[in-house]
Amino acid sequence: MIRAGFIDWMVSTGANLYHDAHWGLGLALHQGSSDVDDRALHRDGVVRIYDIVFEFGVLLETDSYLRQVMNGAEFQRSMSTAELHHLLGKYLAAREEELGLRDTCILSTAYRCGVPLYVSSPGDSSIGLNIADLWLKGRGPHVDVSLDVNETSAIVYAAKRNGGASGVLILGGGSPKNFVLQTEPQINEILGLEGEGHDYFVQVTDARPDTGGLSGATPSEAVSWGKVDPARLPDSVVVYTDSTIALPLLTAYALARAPKRSLRHLYERRGEMLERLRKDFLERQARLEKEARGDPT
Amino acid sequence: MIRAGFIDWMVSTGANLYHDAHWGLGLALHQGSSDVDDRALHRDGVVRIYDIVFEFGVLLETDSYLRQVMNGAEFQRSMSTAELHHLLGKYLAAREEELGLRDTCILSTAYRCGVPLYVSSPGDSSIGLNIADLWLKGRGPHVDVSLDVNETSAIVYAAKRNGGASGVLILGGGSPKNFVLQTEPQINEILGLEGEGHDYFVQVTDARPDTGGLSGATPSEAVSWGKVDPARLPDSVVVYTDSTIALPLLTAYALARAPKRSLRHLYERRGEMLERLRKDFLERQARLEKEARGDPT
Amino acid sequence: MIRAGFIDWMVSTGANLYHDAHWGLGLALHQGSSDVDDRALHRDGVVRIYDIVFEFGVLLETDSYLRQVMNGAEFQRSMSTAELHHLLGKYLAAREEELGLRDTCILSTAYRCGVPLYVSSPGDSSIGLNIADLWLKGRGPHVDVSLDVNETSAIVYAAKRNGGASGVLILGGGSPKNFVLQTEPQINEILGLEGEGHDYFVQVTDARPDTGGLSGATPSEAVSWGKVDPARLPDSVVVYTDSTIALPLLTAYALARAPKRSLRHLYERRGEMLERLRKDFLERQARLEKEARGDPT
Amino acid sequence: MIRAGFIDWMVSTGANLYHDAHWGLGLALHQGSSDVDDRALHRDGVVRIYDIVFEFGVLLETDSYLRQVMNGAEFQRSMSTAELHHLLGKYLAAREEELGLRDTCILSTAYRCGVPLYVSSPGDSSIGLNIADLWLKGRGPHVDVSLDVNETSAIVYAAKRNGGASGVLILGGGSPKNFVLQTEPQINEILGLEGEGHDYFVQVTDARPDTGGLSGATPSEAVSWGKVDPARLPDSVVVYTDSTIALPLLTAYALARAPKRSLRHLYERRGEMLERLRKDFLERQARLEKEARGDPT
């Protein structure tokens, strides 16, 4: 989907990127079963994620790799998670080539395609843990959370400013869902710029609205917040099923039926989009302050 | 529960703290219904969170308050979310007093009780959006994500070092669940210090294991990671129900049956606990490097 | 709840009545765990219902008891499930007395209180299996399914004819839910008599509407069918939680707050209510046929 | 699937067969939305099943058709639901031909293919309601519930006696699930004949085991009951998704990959299979009685 140009930018959890990166390092994960004795696994140094099992050493090796890479000169600064993941993707892409592999994981694929990858909870994953390890030694990157918030809003702002549209495809829920959807309130509720909410909303989830949580909140509820354009509500879709069922179907359908799109390389355009957002925001602020002082506008 | 000493520290989403803070500002939220026309709500300036409704102005007023407070001198630096929320709690506690209120929200209550509040996705909420607004103007706090990761691990490390135990009570799932549980892998997998996993694990959730996601991952799966002590697995509890059912029952039970505990004031002890973690980690690192060089240990 | 007069009549599955009857026979069920090796249980003659375990012999003994009782003279005829369960309840009540027990199970309690118990799928349970065993030998009761349908409709019809109201409390969903709710369509859609749907609708379930199934169908959907009175829709309640959480809370609340109601003994009034339904139906049929023939009405 | 020979027999709810029969009568159901005002629908004579809507007249016309057909001579007796549905299917097949339709519904298709259709809760659906309407006038069929129980067990018994295997595919849960699975306990626990449980178990459901209900009970739990052969447990499958997602995928796969099977016409073989079950059962009973009397065997 990334290579076919169907994904312009992405918000993930760190855990998805971390465990996916095992492939880029040539490490093995195995299809197992969820019906096992976890105390025996723990004793035998085997780690389980539902029905996937792998050796504890896979974690240690990945951790060691990440710390070594992030100890390098390029990482010794403050950055957005998009930059962090782009840099990690660069190293993983190189590692893949050494191993005779290609595009085995999201980090390397997104790096090659210029797709910015954000993580809404950057301390919350083994990537974050390894950064925190380096931090204890006074080394490593610092994630600038506000840069992430503003870059993602700037991407949506740019899409809509140019007469384009913004569509969100949500697999699951939780913090990444909110992080994608809050771009619209950031633009209009907080920064006071124009915006009518996302134009397309497709969510695949097992979270139901009645829990009252964000994961199960409907596109209709999002309309009341200005997160989804009310005019587009009838087109919004919520599919209550597992992402592992829906995503292969969606992917097969998209690749079979839709022509590929040329890559947008939004990663390279982050700076320019952010500056546009900042400029429009500061101009509006100045106008408001002038008005507040009673100056003629 | 906080005032009774049953909560030593806490990980939340920013949204929970933000909307809860409306109470501290004397703003009204209303019990409504989920069965409404959200386009009409949007037109009428009413925002909905499942069956709770409130005026859009409540958001604007809270946003304005947060930006004004976080524009102050105390906030112009890098800090953990515990510090951020402690400072916000201080201002909200003062605001409550002006309004003749007390302990109306978690932020002010936790401030008074010295309970550190962490948020695993600090950019992902209206608190994060308002910080990002200030950031565009070169103002406001910077969240140091690694400080959060290490402070939370240091709290668990201190509890276990002192011959004590660590118990987690999880309402829901998602990023906060992982952030609490990853303290143990941070201690033993990443930092290489001793630890056998949390001693008590109680989760209230509607997320089932079969989705393969972290929210529904069982304490048994956590054992395979060293997140939960295998010896304590039979005592772990997962309750599949809504937190709004379970929490009042748990609270009523705890307050009725268990004697209050004296407040631990972990907020004030963060620095000391972090230094202990850092010291033990750096000593171990030095020892490992020495061994690697072949020096006699 | 039955003894306090809060349950006038009931629809259950046969399995609930069958396994509950083990108590009436003084047989033991044990609280166990769902996390066990079922092949080992099968080998050891232990049967599991989620986290309840018991010896296979409990089934054999209950089966043997049921076949012996239902081989008796009183059972050698066609009957509604209300009669079947009343007769079984009579024998279980006597057995309880021999054992020094009282009201250990629904069958004996409902027998003593004159509460009719219907089962919508009478062949589908071990009670049904044992009846089918006797049937192979030319013995035992025959369930008259249409008598069940008409008796239950007659109960609702009588309640509403007398200026009273009809309230349904649904735990779970499935066939018993539909069987209770179809009483209204039976009265007005099929038999052509007057009725405006049930007045009170409370459901405790984990079935969500989006599955499209009957279990998760909302009271609102039931309004479109005339199963629920549209005027009472705002008072209807769906609670998404486990019955084992909701029922103890409801029971404790009802017993603590509401005065007991005198027992209605609907079991004894089945015949009279059915005759009223039949009479009104046949009169309407005669009137319609007369009209169809062009006779003056 | 039926026509391709992949379905030998079936247990359904009456509601599925009833609403499906609208197609056979040339009546229209419409794809709608679940997000509608049901009071307005009720006022306008529109009935809703989740996101399917149709005119109230569709029900009345189907009811009238069913009563007219079931008033005929062939229906004035006691029968299993397999016979009831076979007869209904015969009339619907004829009606389809009048309308220039073919195999528009399960009833007519199963009739043509000789696939017996059972309903575990025969009073619980509009088919049952219309039978109950006729019953009030002393007309119509009587469902012999025990005949259903024994015929379904006889089908499984025959499959296994002949060295064959028994596989169950379960869509959803509830009463039909139990009715299919109880065939094995009927054979070995109740009737005392040989049997080791079903060989193949595939369930598509959204019901989770933790509710403790039958719908979510796992094949593993079924092993403890002898409902599933322990040796085949590792091959059993539970898919947690909507049947409307799984069934089209399964069907497309089966039709594309598996050769068609010749139709078994089990409907025509019910009598012979039942007699075999009865004979073996009565012989065993006689043997047991002889042993109990101390006669030499």
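qc> The CA atoms of residues 29 and 54 of chain B lie 5 Å apart.
qc> done
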